[in-house]
Each structure stands twice: as C-alpha cells, then as structure tokens.
Amino acid sequence: MEDTGPGGGAPRTVATNPARSPARPIDQIDIETARARPTGVDELDRVLGGGLVPGAVVLLAGEPGVGKSTLLLDVAARAARTGRKVLYVTGEESAAQVRLRAGRIHALDPQLLLTAETDLGTVLGHIEHVDPDLLVLDSIQTIASAQVEGTAGGVSQVREVASAVIQAAKSRDLPVVLIGHVTKDGSVAGPRTLEHLVDVVCQFEGERHSRLRMLRATKNRYGPTDEVGCFDLSESGIVGLPDPSGLFISQALHAVPGTCLTVTLEGRRPLVVEVQSLVAPSAVPNPRRTTSGVDSSRLAMVLAVLQRRLGARLADQDVYVSTIGGARVVEPGADLALALAAVSSRENVPLPRGLVAIGEVGLAGEIRTVSGVGRRLAEAARLGFTRAIVPAGALDGATPPAGLTVLTAADLGEAVTAAGLVPDLASSAASR
Question: Would you name any one GO CC term (predicted)?
Fold first, then answer.
C-alpha cells in the first residue's frame, strides 16, 4: 500500500521550474518599479504616500455622489497631459455623460481614452489593445463576467472582476484605480475579500450638503495610513485644499459668546476647528442635547463634568453644539474647547480673540494631555493665534512657538480662569 504520509493524503502540488522568475540576489532587484509616481493632485499623493506605484491596485470607496468619479477623471486627465496613455472605463454612465463632465472640469486630453463597458472580457480586451499606463475602472460593481453566474455587484462577480484586473495590473506593472460604492453602514459594497486583494483602500468622505471632502487611507502597502487629504467640491470640479483650516472658522467680525477654537489632528495633519455652543433655557422637562459634527456622548460627558465639578447650571438648559464648515470633531483633544464654549454661552461672555484650547477632560475635572501638542500649537501660531490653553505638562519643557502665549491648566477651574470666563465660578467650585 502506498504511504500517504502523516496528513492522510499525498500533496497535489508538485515543484515546477521557476524559469520565468528565478531567485536573484536582493541587491540586484530593480527598485524603480516600486517607486511611486505623482498623480499631479498633491492631496491624493499625500494619502497614497507619494503617488501611484506601477502595478498597484487602489480601491477608492465612497457614497454615491460624493465626488469619486470627478476626482479620478481629473487625475486621469493630469496623467494624460504628462504623456501617459490613460484608459478610463465607465460602467455607470454613458461615454457622452462622462465627456460632458470632463468638459466642465477641463479634463480633456487626446491621451485620455474613454470607453463605456460592463463586460469583463471586453474590458480586458481594451487593456490588451490600448496598453495603457493608467487604468481607471468606474465602478467595479458594474462590471460582470459572462463566465461567472450572478449579477454585477454580487459576491462572485466582484471577486472575479477584481482577480482578473489585479492579474492584468501585476503582469503589466499597470497602476489601476477601482471605484467602489459603500453600503449604508459605511463598508465597501461587495465581498470583504475585495479589500484584502487590493494594495490600497481609500475612503472618500463628505457631507452631502457640504463642499468639504476628505480622503483617508485605511490600508496602504506602499505608504502611511495616517494621512488625510482635503478637497473642495464645486460645480467646476474638485480641487485640493493644502490649507483647509479657513473652512472651519467663522468670519464673525466681533467676538461672540459660545465659540471656541481648537486644533484637531486628522492623522498627522493639524486642523483648526471652531466649536460653537448655544445654551438656552429649556421649555421641556427633558432638555435637548443636539450636536452637529460633534460626538453626542462626548458632549454629554463634558456637560456632566461641568455641572458636577464647576457647579455650572446646565440641567435645565437646552444645549446645541456645532462645528463650522462640515468638520467632524471626534477626538478627546477637543473636550476643553467644548467645555469653554458651553460655559461661554451659559454666562454670555465671549472668549478672547486669538485663543485656542486643547485638552481632554476627565471625569474628575482634570485636563489631560493629548498627542501632538507641539504640532497643534505650531499650526495655531502659523494661522496667527496668540494664546493657547493646554494641559499642565503638555509642553514637557519645550519652547512654545514664537508669538504664541501658552497657558497651562490642570483642571477645568484653572482653564475657565485662564480663558477669562467667570473667575468666581471656578473659585466657588474649588471651595466645594
């Protein structure tokens, strides 16, 4: 009887001759094929880690209408203007519709080739015939293979399309960008394995009623995943915002109670954001707590700490909190700004102009330090702010930026006093 080995069966895979790709000394490997090539869109290059790597497959996911097609049409046109041949495959719109959008955003170039196809075999034939330097597939959920059962966008179809396109990309060193839609819960539509097959997964986010769009990399084999790209979407197209902080700050000509500025970190990028609060007497037994751009549970915690530790009367008040320009503040570093804005509105006393507040509020009323305080303060100083309130010990002996006076606070009472808000409130809390 034949010995089948300890596994209970003989292995089916046998060794083959690696003639096509023999092993070579590592110092003789050509690294030029792994270098990123800039796309011409700085904000996109920032997220990708320098640009598109030959043979890389990038999945750009986002809700319908967020601007994915507009962004990639602009990227395709910029690549075409540098002499590279670009193939843009649209499965959602007709070629004429894409042509109209390209004319509106000035993305017309003879090197940009456009085709409207939904059959995978035909798409692969276009790749063979055109031999492009860049492929954009819009979108992967609309392409289907006649050799696989199921409708376009199904699990089996998406897996087959992705595998075929990835194989073509790797064999030709062809950078490919796939557009993918997301479901209601924010995950990429289709099988979860799609995200594991591609090299880079980017999320394109933005509120429908806001012009601001943010691009984040959730997976990147060629670069960091903590960078964020900011874009401005308008009727004339989409443009990168190298300095987006101005979008998040109101243009009020005089100081208004209930507003406080903070510096958040989106990845490694500091952004100055204005937090606005309106505290008003409630006409209902259960006061309202309404937020826009702010985590509601975080606000509830900060209000509870203010009432318990500072004695601020908020239990019978409606509290509305919002950010400017569609910014989303989810990190604890904005807690102090939330607290000062609420106290400022409650007491109807404006905060001094040129002030930013950075810090996390603990349940005991203490102000805790957060990461990247130096970068946050440098951004505040660059934008002309003159005063900052930070947690005690946050600078750790470092010199603050020139022109910026840094005040430290160990707890909410000291922070309220440093901000010039009702010093008697802080002293009464300290005597409890």
Answer: cytosol
Helix or strand run (H / E) with residue 227: none
Q: What is the pLDDT of residues 30-45, one digit of tens each?
A: 777 778 899 989 999 9
Rg (CA), the chain: 27
282 and 325 Cβ atoms separated by less than 8 Å: no
Q: Is 343 annotated as contributing to ligand binding? A: no
State yes or no: 333 annotated in a binding site.
no
Spatial contact of 329 and 323, defined as CB atoms under 8 Å apart: yes
Q: Is 171 annotated as a binding residue?
A: no
How far apart, in whole angstroms, are the C-alpha atoms of residue 332 and residue 298? 8
Would the annotation count 18 as a binding residue?
no
Domains of the chain, by residue range, sit at 34-242, 247-419
Quickly list DSSP for 287-350: --EEEESB-HHHHHHHHHHHHHHH----TTEEEEEEESTT--B-SGGGHHHHHHHHHHHHHT-P
DSSP code per residue over 361-422:
EPTTSBEEP-TTHHHHHHHHHHTT--EEEEETTSSTTPPPPTT-EEEEESBHHHHHHHTTS-
Residue 124: half-sphere exposure toward Cβ, Cα within 13 Å:
17
**CATH code of domain 247-419:** 3.30.230.10
| 160 pLDDT tier (thresholds 50, 70, 90) | very high
| DSSP letter (8 states) at residue 49 | T
Q: Is 62 annotated as a binding residue?
A: yes
The two tokens of residue 38 are 């800039």
Residue 161 assigned as binding residue: no
Only one residue has tokens 């003989």, namely 10
Fold category of 34-242 in CATH: Rossmann fold (3.40.50)
Tokens 């006393």 correspond to what residue? 349
Could you tell me what percentage of the chain is helix, strand and coil, using 3-state DSSP and rounding each to the nearest 5?
30, 25, 45
Q: What is the pLDDT of residues 293-334, one digit of tens each?
A: 999 999 999 999 999 999 898 999 999 999 987 788 989 999
- 267 annotated to a ligand binding site: no
